[in-house]
Amino acid sequence: MPRPPDDADLADHAPTSRYLEFDRAQWARLRGETPLPLGEGELQQLVGLNDRVSLDEVADTYLPLVRLLGLHLQATRELHRARSAFLGSDTPRAPFVIAIAGSVAVGKSTTARILQALLQRTALPGALDADGAAAPSVELVTTDGFLYPLAELHRRDLVGRKGFPESYDVRALIQFMADLKAGHPEVAAPVYSHVTYDIVPDEYQLVHQPDIVIIEGLNVLQSAAPLRRSTLEGGGASDGGAARSEVERAGDQPRTFVSDFFDSSIYVHADEGHIERWFVDRFLTLRETVFQDPDSFFHRFAQLSLEQATDTARHVWRTINLVNLHENILPTRDRAHLILEKGADHSIRQVRLRKM
Predict the structure, then answer these.
(1) Any idea where the domains of the chain sit in the sequence?
(2) Reduced DSSP (H G I as helix, E B as strand, rest coil) percent helix, strand, coil of the chain, to 5
(3) d(CA 174, CA 118)
(4) Pick from 95-104, 211-220, 221-230: least confident
(5) 18-222+257-354: what fold?
(6) Nearest alpha-carbon partner for 160 in 197, 130, 199, 109
């Protein structure tokens, strides 16, 4: 009679992790000689509302990442030169594109701004066409600018699903990425206002062939996925029909996704309980600051009591942002090349690097 499997047998058949895991001390040792070009005052200007980052954390967690991205940039530039030599022509050099994804309130924007500041102040191999190192030019673009305007979201009955994949003008975002990667001299991204909660009419961020572009957004790592039945069947905006053209239909030919244009990608992760607390804390801070502005879309929340504001924030988190996290954002985590895992105090505690 065969014996039941023991722990060793189970270990032999356990799925192999796609990631190498590092605690903060292990990851910090990979910094090498990468310098820290930021001071405390400069750092705090980059840190988002209610987020907390120290210079020690930047040195331990961000500088090894800068070094790694520099090596990737160098390899990409060498591949571009080799391909140009093979083709016998000097094709336009495309920027190196880094994606940063994760939940609402997890600290994506802070991560993106710190990374931009470090990259553009650090001499990296590959930032020059010739041999040698230089500080690269770095642009940061958020996908908020590619949300549909509020009027269009109302028309499609999608205001309550703002931030979900169907609330974005995906075609415009993909065209932006395609033009960027084609090496166009100038590419324009729409600008979003967090005060009016809307696209700013006739205002654009112009991107002029930088060495590196950081793309930050909730759903940037998405790839093909089957749709809910209501979306596949078409119909009115209330059942998802208005967003039908923006997502792949089962049985259609393969199509292009935003994630196809990325050279490297980062997912910022934390426990859901931590993120909910951060979201509520941020909402309460905004209630006393930005929401006080009469032009703010959320001005109606400015006069809520502390208890009312806390209940409102938790309701928004659990009925909108948590749903989006479960349905659309968290499932893309393991597509990232690097995962930054944060603890309850917002600090990065663990780094997971995808194996080659």
Answers:
(1) 18-222+257-354
(2) 45, 20, 35
(3) 27
(4) 221-230
(5) Rossmann fold (3.40.50)
(6) 197
